[in-house]
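Morning run. Coffee first, then this:
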Amino acid sequence: MPNSAWPTDERPRERLLTHGPQSLSDAELLAIFLRTGTTGVPVMAMARSLITEFGSLRGLMTASCNQFCEGRGLGTAKYAQVQAAMEMARRVMDEPLRQGDPLRSPEDTRRFLTSRLGTHPHEVFAGLFLDNRHRVIQYRELFRGTIDGAAVYPREVVRQALDDNAAAVIFAHNHPSGVAEPSQADIALTRRLKEALGLVDIRVLDHMVVGHGEVISLAERGLM
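And here it is:
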């Protein structure tokens, strides 16, 4: 059945325009993105099938190019569209920080870091280097590792902070497993970095662990 023949309440595009994007299911949002199905498979059925195949909408959107293109009705053109859409979303979320606005709350930081680290399939350790007014000088992905962890070298972190003329830093890394709970190794690393940076008068404000839909602050937990 073509999209135009569906009852109005069942057309994802019309539902979005009438009720807003938040009212749509993952499959409906994906159907709008896909636009058309394949021979014998309506676009809504195709969208539901793909979400089942990839485990979730997130699983589909963060799949590698090869994995994505194996999905029925998908290919490099749609993969490029997905990557462009995700990068546009990241840039919209990052814009206030790129314009020099200060980080005013932990929630500002959470949103920024989720947009940057939330979709990596491997562990990434990053730093937000700040001036003395807590404006972002630079966001840097410092170390990359496997799904089990990343090797972080305090000497390199100190060197980068000095190169950026930072007065403070917020660290973050993702847990690709999706569970944001900090490990004892995360806590120990934070304390080593805080001690090393303290020797050159650079403050460590926080270390945040990014999971799927959750970001845990070590500072808020009193683990610094």
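Residues 4-9 have pLDDT under 50 and may be disordered. Good start to the day.
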